[in-house]
Write a structure and sequence with these properties.
The complex is a heterodimer. Chain A has 22 helices and 22 strands. By secondary structure, chain A is α+β, with helices and mostly antiparallel strands. Chain A has four domains: 131 residues, Beta-Lactamase; 172 residues, Beta-Lactamase; 164 residues, 2-Layer Sandwich (Beta-Lactamase); 156 residues, 2-Layer Sandwich (Heat Shock Protein 90), CATH 3.30.565. In chain A, strands 2-1-5-4-3 form a five-stranded antiparallel β-sheet. The radius of gyration of chain A is 49 Å and the shape is rod-shaped. Chain B is globular. The chains are: A alpha+beta, B alpha/beta. Chains A and B meet through helix 17 and helix 18 of A and helix 1 and helix 5 of B.
Chain lengths: 757, 126
C-alpha cells in the first residue's frame, strides 16, 4: 500500500479505492439518484465525466429509461436488481440493428447491479451501481449464433437450390435466397461461350422498386456495369468486396444519366461480387448489394458470399447438365420427327411447313424457311414457311416479309447465309442491332414489336451450293442461342437441304417427263399436219392417174405445188427442232456481223403483211433507223419473227405495235399486243422449254418459240422481258448491247434439266 | 338448215388451210358439196346459217384454236337441230381413238388417205 493512502481517513481511503477500481462503480444518493461517486471506469462506460451532484438519469443518454426503471425498483423496494448484457453505446446510436449483424462499432455490453444503500436508521438513501464488462462474452456468443444462423441459411439455400432442375428457376432462386437476409438486392449473371456475361435474375427486397428492377434488367446489361469488378472477380475466382461505394464512384461508373438514376434508385452503398465456380469452371457472377450506407459489407461477409455463390454455382451446373441432357433428348426426338416429315413427302413446301412447326416451340419462338427460287432468270429468294405458336404473329411476320424485302447484297442476314453458306449466330440481339438493320422508324417499331432476343440463321445445303436458309429466333421465352444450337440446326439445315434437293429433282424429273410427253404430242401433231395434207394430195394424184380421163394438168400442178409447200413447212419444223436440240446442247453458233436492226424489223414486218391482214389487227411500225450493232442477222430475224408471230397469234385481232429504237448503248425491240395477255404466274414460265401460257388444245406450235428467243437474245448478250396482265395483252421487250464482244455459245439456261430431245 | 338432205354436203372443220383445201378439192371431185370451217365457232356459224344445206357428215379436227373439237361436239349436242349429224374425227392424236367413241366411234388418224375418208363418208351419205 502506498504511503499517502495509509495516512488518509478510512472513508476517504475507501472513496479513493472506489475511484481507482477497474470495474465501473457509481454511488448515488437520494430519490433523484444524484451522483455521489463515479469512478473512471464508470465514466468511460457511460461516456461522461464530472457528473458529481447531477441526477444520473440526466447524465448522458447511455442509461436508457429501462435502466432508470431498474434503479427506481432497487431504490423503492430496497432490493438488489441485476440487468444482464445491457448494450451501452457511446452516441450516436445505430437505429438499424440487424438480426444477424455482429456488434456495431464501439458497442459494449455490461452486466449491471443496482444495490440499495442504507443510512444509519436503515432507510434507503442511495444506490451503488456496479458493472462487469461482458462485451467479449456477448461477441463470442453472437459469433456462435451467427455461425449457426449462417449454416442454417446455407442449408436452406442448398435445399432450395436443389428443389428444381429448371435452369431459369434455379437462377432466380439464387437471387431470392440472398434477399433480404444477406443483401438488399442481388443479381445473377451467367457467362456465355464468348466469355461475356448475361444477366438472368435481379431481385430487390423492396417491391416498390420493381419498375426500377425491370428498367435495370432491360437497358443495362451486366457487361456495361461495374465491368471492372466483375472481370476481376471472374479472373481471380475470388469475391470482390466494395465495403463503401460512394456516390462519386457510382457517378463515375454510370454510363448515362438514366443508368445513374436507376442505380441510385436501387441503392448501391456497398457490394460484394462473387464468382460462381463449379467443377473448376466459372459459370457466372452473383452481385450482392446493400442500399444503406450505415450497414455495409465487412470482410467477414466475403466468405459467406463466396459460399453462397459456390452453392449457387453447383446448382446452376447441375441445372445446366440437366438442361443439356434434356436438350440432347429433345434434339434426338426432334431429328427423328423432322427426318420422318422430310422423307414423308416430296411436296417440299408442305414438308418445310411441317419442319417449321416442329422447330417451334422447342428450338425457337419463330421459325422461317426461305429458299432460292427455282428459275435461273430471277434468283429471288422466297419464303416458303413461317411458324410461331400464335398464328396472328405469323401473319405479322409474313406482312413484314412482304413489305421489307431483305437487301440481296447485305453482308449479313438470310441472304448472306444463302450466298456464303455460313451460319450466323446473334446470341443477344441488342436494340442497337435492330436500329442498324432496319430501314426506317416504321420498320424498326414493327421489328421491336416482335421482341426478338436471339437469332440463328443456318443454310439449307444439299449436294451443291446453299439453296436456302432456316431462320430461328427466340423472343417471348427469352432463351439465347449458343454454339451448340448452331451445330444442331446446321445438321437440320443439311437434312432439309437434301430433302429439298430430292424434292426438286423429283419435281424437275416429273415436269421434264411431262414436258417431253407434251412436246412429243405437240411435235407429232405439228409434223402430221403437213403430212396429212401431203397424203391427201398424193392420193388425189394417184386417183387421177388411175383414171386418165380425169387427168387435169392444171389441177395436178396445183396438187404438186401444195405438196411442195408442205415439204417446205416440214423442213421448217425440222429446223426448229434442230435449233432446239442445238440450243439444249449449248452449241448454237452465232455469225456476228454489222447489222441494221431497223432494217431487220422492217423486213419481218413486211413478211407478215398477209397474216396481219388476215388477223384484222391494226398494225403500227415504229422504227427509228438505222440501229447498227454486231449481231447475227438470221437470229435477229428469228427473234423478231417469233415475237411478232406470237402477237398475231394471241393478239385476238386487236392493235399490234412493233417498235425498235436505240437506247444509249442498247438496242431495244418492243412488240405490243392487246390480246389475251399472260397471267402473272405464267410470265416466268413462258420462257422455259415446251411451255405455253395457254393450253396446247387451243394454240398449235411447239411451245418453244419464246424459249428459243430467249436463248438467242442471251447468246447475243441481251435480255428479254415481258409486262402483261390477263385480257390486256402483252409487251415483250428485247434489249441487246450494240457491241457485244464475247461470242460465247448459247449456254443452256437449265443445265441440270435432263435433255429431252 | 331448212332443206332436207338431198345434196351430199360434207362439213370439214380443220385449222390447217392445206388440209381444208385438199379435202374440199378431193371430195368435190367425188360429187360432194364441201363446206369448210377453221374452228368450232365458224363451224357452228355455218351450220346455223339458214341458207346452208344440212351436211350428212362432219369431218372434225380436235386441236384447233378458239373452239376445239371437244367443245364443238358439246355445243352441237346441245343444239337439237344439229345433234343428229354424225361426226368423224380426223386427228393426229392417236390417243384420241378411244375418245372418239363419244363422237359415234368414227375416227381417222392423220395422215389419212382420201380412200379411207371416202369410205367413211359414203357410209353416212351414200
Amino acid at each position: 500500500m502506498p504511503e499517502e493512502i495509509r495516512v488518509t481517513e478510512p472513508l476517504d481511503r475507501l472513496a479513493a479505492l472506489l475511484m481507482q477500481a477497474p470495474t465501473p462503480i457509481c454511488v448515488t444518493w437520494g430519490p433523484a439518484h444524484r451522483v455521489e461517486i463515479m469512478n473512471a471506469a464508470f465514466e468511460a462506460m457511460v461516456g461522461v465525466a464530472g457528473a458529481r451532484g447531477r441526477p444520473l438519469g440526466e447524465v448522458g443518454s447511455a442509461l436508457d429509461a429501462g435502466q432508470l426503471r431498474l434503479m427506481e425498483q432497487a431504490f423503492c423496494l430496497g432490493e438488489r436488481v441485476e440487468a444482464a448484457e445491457v448494450a451501452l453505446r457511446p452516441p450516436p446510436a445505430d437505429l438499424h440493428a440487424r438480426p444477424s449483424g455482429a456488434a456495431g462499432a464501439g458497442e459494449r455490453f455490461f452486466n449491471l447491479v443496482y444495490e440499495p444503500l442504507h443510512d444509519r436508521t436503515g432507510a434507503i438513501d442511495g444506490l451503488m451501481i456496479s458493472a462487469v464488462d461482458v462485451t467479449a462474452h456477448v461477441a463470442s456468443r453472437r459469433e456462435f449464433e451467427s455461425a449457426q444462423q449462417r449454416a442454417r441459411f446455407l442449408g436452406d439455400a442448398s435445399a432450395a437450390l436443389s428443389e428444381s432442375l429448371d435452369y431459369a428457376r434455379t437462377l432466380r432462386r439464387v437471387a431470392e435466397l440472398a434477399v433480404p437476409c444477406f443483401a438488399d438486392w442481388c443479381t445473377v449473371s451467367e457467362t456465355d461461350e464468348s466469355g461475356g456475361l448475361r444477366r438472368l435474375a435481379v431481385v430487390h427486397r423492396d417491391p416498390a422498386r420493381a419498375p426500377l428492377v425491370v428498367e435495370y434488367e432491360r437497358h443495362f446489361p451486366p457487361t456495361e456495369h461495374r465491368a471492372g469488378d466483375m472481370a476481376h472477380a471472374l479472373g481471380s475466382s475470388r469475391a470482390v468486396l466494395r465495403a463503401r461505394v460512394t456516390d462519386a464512384e457510382l457517378c463515375a461508373a454510370a454510363q448515362s444519366p438514366d443508368h445513374l438514376r436507376v442505380m441510385r434508385g436501387l441503392g448501391c452503398a456497398s457490394c460484394i461480387i462473387a464468382p460462381m465456380i463449379a467443377r473448376g469452371a466459372t459459370v457466372g457472377v452473383v452481385s450482392f448489394m446493400r442500399s444503406e450506407p450505415d450497414h455495409p459489407y465487412a470482410a467477414g461477409d466475403v466468405a459467406m458470399a463466396e459460399e453462397l455463390a459456390h452453392r449457387a454455382a453447383l446448382a446452376i451446373d447441375n441445372a445446366r447438365l440437366y438442361r443439356a441432357a434434356r436438350r440432347r433428348e429433345e434434339t434426338m426426338r426432334f431429328f427423328a420427327e423432322a427426318s420422318a416429315v422430310l422423307s414423308s413427302s416430296l411436296d417440299y413446301e408442305a414438308a418445310f411447313d411441317k419442319v417449321a412447326q416442329l422447330v417451334v416451340p422447342s428450338f425457337a419462338d419463330w421459325c422461317a424457311v426461305d429458299v432460292k427460287a427455282e428459275t435461273d432468270r430471277d434468283p429471288a429468294i422466297q419464303n416458303v414457311a413461317v411458324a410461331h405458336v400464335n398464328p396472328a404473329k405469323v401473319e405479322l411476320a409474313r406482312e413484314l416479309q412482304r413489305r421489307y424485302q431483305p437487301d440481296p447484297n447485305a453482308t449479313y442476314g438470310r441472304n448472306n447465309v444463302i450466298r456464303t453458306g455460313r451460319s450466323e449466330l446473334y446470341s443477344e440481339i441488342s436494340d442497337a442491332v435492330l436500329v442498324a438493320s432496319t430501314r426506317d422508324s416504321d420498320h424498326l417499331s414493327a421489328i421491336r414489336a416482335l421482341g426478338l432476343r436471339s437469332c440463328l440463321i443456318v443454310p439449307l445445303i444439299g449436294r451443291g451450293p446453299p439453296i436456302g436458309a432456316l431462320t430461328l429466333a427466340w423472343a417471348e421465352s427469352n432463351h439465347h442461342y449458343t454454339a451448340e444450337d448452331v451445330a444442331v440446326m446446321e445438321d437440320l439445315g443439311r437434312r432439309a437441304g437434301f430433302a429439298l434437293e430430292n424434292a426438286r429433282l423429283y419435281g424437275e424429273t416429273q415436269s421434264a417427263v411431262r414436258l417431253r410427253d407434251e412436246f412429243i404430242s405437240i411435235a407429232s401433231h405439228e409434223l402430221k399436219t403437213p403430212l396429212t395434207s401431203m397424203q391427201l394430195q398424193i392420193s388425189g394424184i394417184r386417183r387421177a392417174a388411175a383414171s386418165p380421163a380425169r387427168l387435169d394438168v392444171e389441177k395436178l400442178t396445183r396438187r404438186v405445188d401444195a405438196i411442195d409447200r408442205q415439204v417446205g413447212r416440214l423442213a421448217e419444223l425440222v429446223d426448229g427442232l434442230l435449233d432446239v436440240s442445238r440450243a439444249v446442247a449449248g452449241r448454237l453458233r452465232l455469225n456476228l456481223e454489222e447489222v441494221d436492226l431497223a432494217e431487220v424489223v422492217r423486213v419481218v414486218a413486211e413478211r407478215f403483211t398477209g397474216e396481219l391482214g388476215a388477223a384484222r389487227s391494226d398494225f403500227a411500225l415504229d422504227v427509228q433507223g438505222p440501229i447498227l450493232g454486231r449481231w447475227d442477222r438470221l437470229r435477229l430475224d428469228d427473234v423478231v419473227t417469233n415475237l411478232l408471230g406470237n402477237a398475231i397469234k394471241y393478239g385476238a385481232g386487236r392493235p399490234i405495235r412493233l417498235a425498235a429504237r436505240l437506247d444509249g448503248d442498247l438496242a431495244a425491240v418492243e412488240v405490243r399486243d392487246h390480246g389475251i395477255g399472260i397471267p402473272e404466274d405464267d410470265q416466268q414460265r413462258i420462257f422455259q422449254r415446251f411451255t405455253r401460257a395457254v393450253s396446247s388444245e387451243h394454240y398449235g406450235g411447239f411451245g418453244l418459240g419464246l424459249w428459243i428467243v430467249q436463248v438467242l437474245v442471251q447468246a447475243m448478250g441481251g435480255s428479254i422481258g415481258v409486262e402483261s396482265a390477263v385480257g390486256e395483252g402483252a409487251l415483250f421487250t428485247v434489249k441487246l448491247p450494240c457491241h457485244y464482244i464475247g461470242q460465247r455459245g448459247a449456254k443452256s439456261t437449265q443445265d441440270h434439266e435432263p435433255a429431252v430431245l | 338448215m331448212s332443206q332436207p338432205c338431198c345434196e351430199r354436203v360434207v362439213l370439214v372443220v380443220d385449222d390447217d388451210p392445206g388440209i381444208r383445201e385438199a379435202l374440199a378439192d378431193l371430195l368435190g371431185e367425188e360429187g360432194y358439196q364441201v363446206v369448210t370451217a377453221m374452228n368450232g365457232v365458224e363451224a357452228l356459224d355455218k351450220l346455223r346459217e339458214p341458207s346452208q344445206a344440212r351436211p350428212c357428215v362432219i369431218l372434225l379436227d380436235l386441236m384447233m384454236p378458239h373452239m376445239n373439237g371437244h367443245q364443238f361436239f358439246a355445243e352441237q349436242q346441245q343444239d337439237r337441230a344439229l345433234a343428229s349429224i354424225p361426226i368423224v374425227v380426223i386427228s393426229a392424236d392417236g390417243a384420241v381413238r378411244q375418245k372418239a367413241a363419244q363422237f359415234g366411234g368414227e375416227f381417222l388418224a392423220k395422215p389419212v388417205r382420201i380412200e379411207r375418208v371416202l369410205e367413211v363418208i359414203e357410209r353416212h351419205c351414200g
